[in-house]
Amino acid sequence: MDHSPQAVPGKGSINLRIEAATRQLIDEAAAILGKTRTEFMIESARRQAIDVLLDQRLFALENADHAAFVAALDNPPAPGPKLQALMQRVPAWQRDV
After folding, report:
1. Is residue 6 part of a domain?
2. With bands split at pLDDT 50, 70 and 90, how would you rate the model's confidence at 91?
3. What is the pLDDT of residue 57?
């Protein structure tokens, strides 16, 4: 499935069923911010989605930590016996069934 921006139509809809207490909570929060329920829910969901995706793709390091990270990538430890054994195994997709 293509999740690129070009594959997403201009607008769509999402139908939700929520408990009355949750709906009231959302409505109260939206009103405090001067937003509609829809605006509030879209902005909240979008912000959460961005946070989740960034958490999986982005991390920040101080200069010294970044240097140590790059050094570790550039100088990995020698393969141990478990990795060597794993690399000698025939992959499942190449085994005779």
Report:
1. no
2. confident
3. 80
Establish if 22 belongs to a structural domain. yes
Domain span at 44: 16-76
Domain membership flag for residue 88: no
CA 71, CA 63: separation in Å to the nearest integer?
12
Cα-based distances in Å from 95 to 83, 84, 85, 86, 88: 19, 19, 16, 15, 13
Helices (H), 1-97: 20-32, 37-57, 63-74, 81-88
Indicate whether 91 belongs to any domain: no
What's the pLDDT score for residue 23?
A: 97
Count of domains in the chain?
Answer: 1
The pTM (predicted TM-score) of the whole model is 0.53
Sign of CA dihedral 50, 55, 58, 64: positive
Rounded Cα gap, residues 44 and 47, in angstroms: 5
Identify the pLDDT of residue 56: 84
